[in-house]
Amino acid sequence: MLRFTRAILLASAIALSPVAFAQTTALPDTPQGQTVKAWIEAVNGPDAEAAKALGPFAVRVRGDFGGMSVLSVEPGRANEVITVVREPVFGNYQRMIWIFEAADPTKVAGIRVQPAPGAPAIERIDDKQLAAFVDESVKKMNYSGTVLVARNGKPVVTAVAGLADREANIPNKLDTSFRVGSMNKMMTAVGVLQLVQAGKVKLDAPLGTYLKDYPNKQFAETVTIHHLLSHTGGAGDIFGPQFTAKRLELKTLKDYVALYGSRAPEFTPGDNWRYANYGFVLLGRVIEEVSGQSYPDYVRDHIFKPAGMKNSGFEPESANVPNRAKGYLTGPNGIESNASTLPWSGTSAGGGYSTVEDWLAFSNALTGHKLLDKTHTELMMTRKTSTGYAYGYGDNSTADIRAGGHNGGAPGMNGNLSILADGQVVVITLVNLSPPSQASTLATEIMKRVKVLKSDGTVAKSVWGPGGLPPSSEEARQAAFKAADTDNDGKLDQAAYRKALAQLGFSDQFAPYWQQRDKDKDGFITAEEYKAPIGAAAPPPPQ
Prior knowledge:
By secondary structure, this protein is α+β, with helices and mostly antiparallel strands.
């Protein structure tokens, strides 16, 4: 089933020299130990289906990292097995904590991955060394796609590997175009914000302002453009049994609205965060209604042409697009075509095609304010929720630099664009073989090594953050309360509390936070209730 997702990348430490770990490498002779042993044998073995049966993480360990070897086994709690492992492709050392269900010691409840204690930190390397690292990595990974790393707008590292068409034995080239999944959401966000900048769309306006005949009137009256751009609208997905049955009949954005427009939202708009492909379909319809152009035509005229993107588009799968790679996935019979999973064409939610060179042109145009002015570029790139999601863009800034971008993935496609330090360094990876998610994995490994300078000229230690919001300072929290308490009575009703959370970037946490803070259930949060400790925010989105 085709999915466009925002991936969460695993953190790991890189060992550059031998590291000493615990003495034993023997897994415990227990049901838990036997389960871990079987899991490791599956990801190291020749049978891809054995790893697939264990889930996406096992597929990624097998495909992207080449399996693993156990270096040590540490003592843990009764329901845990703790191992330190090393993967052969990048040489990463990781501490893996296997957590088992209490009622069934053979069932893995979860696997927690941490940097291995004692492994030395990664060293930042120069561009020449980075090029050698990328060349070596694509060979070890059996990579099928393209790589481009740019510095100050110019390519400094490029790599190409694999086949664009396996049946015809046509190799990938640097200008080969690949389907890019959810990376297109960045274009949709730019398109909407261009209309906001022109005064034709308002972020706080309900959807029904622009889609006046939308089937679910209540949803159209409550969900705003801001909600849809930030995935806080509860719009839901477009993939599932209905899509599978009608995928070749869904030829326009209107067709998707006809299929899904009557359904209820997954939650009250603004109360939560959940990745919603359908929300970006609706944003594409807003662009169409306001501009008078089809979504592909609008993007061509207002994004592709100004940015100089010459090999990107949304042509149907039936069209003969020069240099467009075919997509492949790993199935029970080996590598298979992904044609049976594809939609009629890409949409405003994703699934169009592009090249690494065109994505660099997009990045240069975006950071150079050729697509949006500085104010609206900042608006797009700055996190809006506790997940770190902004507007069609992930904000992964660190204490050292601003960082962000978007990736995309589906059977037969995976891509990644990461913009570091406002375009000082740009990392772009595209592949036509997935799973595993080679493009996202290699981009992560590149960002662990590439040198990026902070504003003071020193090398940044961290260039890619996890995406979540940092804890708000007490000063910021109190300022938000004061700004929302417009009548100065020392308490906030639901509408005022929403404003306070929005100022802090936690608008998606309204429902759980309100429930925890309004302890006396009187419909207000007092200054004292506001000061009380709060539970953990919603977890980041799934991989």
